[in-house]
Amino acid sequence: MPAKRSMIQVYLISMIVLATVPAVSLLSLWMSDQYQRHELRVSKWTESHLQSRRELLQQEVRRTVRYIEFKRAQLLQRLRREMKDRVIRNYRLVEAVYQQGTVQLLLWISTYQACTDERMGVNIGYPHYLAITALKLHLLARLKVIQGATFGIHLIAKHPQMTCEQAPFFVFT
After folding, report:
1. Which of 3, 116, 129, 168 has the fewest C-beta atoms lying within 10 Å of its C-beta?
2. Which of 30-34, 126-130, 142-146 has the lowest mean pLDDT?
3. CB-side exposure of 119: number of CA atoms within 13 Å?
4. How far is it, in rounded angstroms, from Cα 147 to Cα 107?
């Protein structure tokens, strides 16, 4: 048979149970509230951290796009400048060829002279067509083809160590 407990023991146990049950329930409610608050703070912190990282990434992308656009603009400027230089150079070349062709056409100078030794810059040819005195020498300063193609002149030569654009002409009659 079970032992009988005294009234004091029963009263003490019931008081302990009555005090412990509400304390445990209040503690569990408080812990639940604290856990929910902690979860809310963590989610807010995570969202703010992700937002700041997004902004940093967007800034970096904008900076990279600006750099690419700058380099592209720089490249386009350089290409335009190079194309302009090439067009000017080619225009000058075409203009010189046109002037040479015009002078050849006006003076009946043949473009191919079989007796020209171009390595030495000397033409030994037979005199024919117009006299050199009738020409405007400033138009012919850059032209190489007129060597020996005029009437009454036996030899026209240039200094062999100078380019055609700088060379003085030596006329031997």
Report:
1. 3
2. 126-130
3. 0
4. 12
